[in-house]
Amino acid sequence: MGKYDVIIIGGGLGGLICSAILGKEGYRVCIIEKNKKIGGSLQTFSRNGVKFDVGVHYFGGFNKGQNLYQLFKYFGLHKELNVQRLDMNGFDRITFSHDKHEYPLSQGYDNFKQNLLKYFPKEKKALQTYIDYLKEMCNNFPLYNLTTRNKKVLGAKFEELNTRDLIASITSDKKLQNVLAGTNPLYAGEPEKTPFYLHALINNSYIESAWRCIGGGSQIAYHLMKLIKRYNGSFLLNSEVKRLIIRKGMVEAVVLDNGEQIDVDKVISNVHPAATMEMIDPGMIRKAYRNRILSLENTVSAFLVNIVLQKGFLDYWNYNRYHYKKENVWVCHRYNEKNWPLGMVIFMSSNRGPDGYAEGITIMSYMNFSDVARWANTFNTVTKPGDRGKDYHEFKKRKAEKLIDAAEEIIPGLRNHTISYSASTPLTLRDYLGTKNGAIYGIMKDCRNPLRTFISPRTKIQNLFLTGQNLDLHGLLGVTISSVLATSELLGMPALINKILNT
To answer: Count H helices, E strands: the chain?
Structure first.
């Protein structure tokens, strides 16, 4: 097959962005993907003619001049996408059982504050402080702002407090605390662990502008694939990298599952860092580094139900709904068999029906991997389909029915107007997206020990680099930024940022 400048392991968003950047800059790149389709969380699938997104249900920062827009402009991708801006006065709406109000999170900071003041008229100072804190935190991440200037020194209020406690320091109003943290499932927040920077960077991007891909996020993968091919990049699908051959501290070749060996100058791994370590023979990488990566905790997983609706039943929502049984958004992963689900997110399918009605919805709720651990040794992928057995299918059906029942509180009549549904468990996410134990956002960031959970794109192997959601930030914006970080190791950060800004 010959020798490439760079092998990219994994054809998800991070791998595609890295390949597009390097191809644009003249590198000969090959993406190796274990599934028959590239895209990872960008993939879509259809049921009864209705298209559903696998993972990217909406994204932020895509208005002209904003960070994701400028990054995509570098590829010319900003002109290719069919997108729709979500409701300016409530792109996300937070609701609680036994509370009739829908608390809106709005686009534009003044709009954000003014719309929440309607429900919290005494909290003007608190809301302004929250906004100031978000902006201050975001200003301390140069790459997030597409600059290479030195970052400022963060104050103790940011370094020592988790997101929950920082928000509590702003306001004593419990309802407002939970509204401000209401998009918790965007980062799988843990009350004692989730650093405020994670909350700030993610929420700021949506408040700046929030968007949905019409026709699904797979269009992003499709256009990136076209771009990579234009730059003479290659794709090797249905192939899995099993081993990295390392000599004298350098990756010399990758070995595929069929035994084929491909020589390479450099490797960027877009799979989970722990999976990358498992490709390396013991003794070939520093033991302490390997053990740290393998021992890191991952975020919680999820259970999803994708529902095809009867025509004309539900108006299309140009927003997302985050709903909680209790006025505590931080405990939804601490459920038991009886009270699950404690919270859920409802996304519209990626197309509005021609009559203005919703064609389908996706309901997502947290699910711990321990719930499906009894089937952990079974696998079901596109290339290697398998059946986990009757008990597993009964489990999926029972959980799906329970989640639909819970959603009836928000959408009365949902069950009677459902044509069909399909469900995904943590095992589905593990097998199809390649995430460790189905973790929805990879490695858990922990403000109590930030250095331990910090993942650098550089590894202890000189020509092996990491990218993807496990570095700094997840989501469409976060993974794109992580890809810039990874490729800058080859191209130089100032030069790459200048090219992105001057496109």
So the answer is: 16, 19
**Structural element, H or E, at residue 200:** helix 196-208
Q: Is the pLDDT of residue 134 over 60?
A: yes
pTM of structure: 0.95
pLDDT at residue number 351: 83
Q: Are 176 and 101 in contact (CB under 8 A)?
A: no
Phi, psi of 344 (to 5 degrees): -160, 160
In the chain the domains, ranked by start, together with CATH numbers, are 4-43+58-82+214-297+445-501 (3.50.50.60), 106-210 (no CATH), 300-440 (no CATH)
Using left for φ > 0, alpha for ψ between -120 and 50, and beta otherwise, residue 217 falls in alpha
Q: Which residue in this structure is represented by tokens 């919805």?
A: 361
CA distance 339 to 337: 6
Name the residue with higher pLDDT: 391 or 453: 391
- Specify whether the CB–CB gap between 21 and 491 falls below 8 A: yes
Query: Is the CA virtual torsion 247, 249, 250, 255 positive or negative?
Result: positive
Q: What is the CA radius of gyration of the chain?
A: 22
Query: Residue written as tokens 């009350």?
Result: 191
Does residue 210 contact residue 73 with C-beta atoms inside 8 Å? no
Indicate the residue type of 171. T
Residue 491 amino acid letter: L
Phi, psi of 489 (to 5 degrees): -65, -25
Q: Are 382 and 36 in contact (CB under 8 A)?
A: yes
Distance CA(173)–CA(122), nearest Å, equals 10
Residue 214, classed as helix, strand or coil, is coil
Unique residue bearing structure tokens 């393998």: 294
| pLDDT tens digits along 31-60 | 999 989 999 999 999 999 999 999 899 999
Question: Tokens 């997030």 label which residue?
Answer: 144
pLDDT for 479: 96
Model pLDDT for residues 229-285, shown as the tens digit of each residue: 999 999 999 999 999 999 999 999 999 999 999 999 999 999 999 999 999 999 999
Give 374-379 contacts, CB < 8 A, sequence gap 24+.
375/427, 376/427, 378/427, 379/431
CA atoms of 227 and 309, how far apart (whole Å)? 36
Residue 439 to residue 54: CA distance in whole angstroms: 14
- DSSP 8-state code for residue 264: E
Q: Which is it for strands 92-96 and 320-324: parallel, antiparallel or unpaired? A: parallel
pLDDT score for 350: 81
